[in-house]
Amino acid sequence: MRFLLDANAVLKRYVSEPGSVIVTEVFGAADSGQASLVYSLWTLGECLGVLDRLDREGRLPARGLAEASRALLGETTRLTRLDVLIVVPLGVKLIRRAWDLLLKHHLYQADAIQVASALERRVDILLTTDAQVALAARGEGLRVLDPEQDEAEIAKALRLRSGSHPRRAVHGRRTRD
Fold first, then answer.
1. Is 75 exposed, middle or buried (0-12, 13-18, 19+ CB in 10 A)?
2. What domain range is 123 assigned to?
């Protein structure tokens, strides 16, 4: 099962909020080779920007920005090396496709890049909490699930792929159910 995670979905891995548990399960499935992940290079910048904003607003614990940034970039590198994460580069072809999507679906450039990346990499499921991204992606024929609202469906997709139960987060570690 190949999942594209947009920035708001990726951030759930590093900031505890609704949907974080299922996103941790998705990352755990990738870590064990039972799923693959996709996100664009743009997503990393978006995530770092949001983490910086949360830190400036006092919404991260002390050293939270440094720890979350290090975890994001470190895990991205590790999963890429394990060949279970594809970081989609921002090439001319992808950007042009994103422009077409931007005009067709009235998206922001960043959101159009997410949908273009999902289409380019032929993902099975796009994970997002953004209603506009979801609407545009569905309009392009993609399956879209919201980690905050569709936890059971995401867990089911993971079980169908792996033939076993997904992993659960327990105090920062992943364990079998």
1. middle
2. 2-176
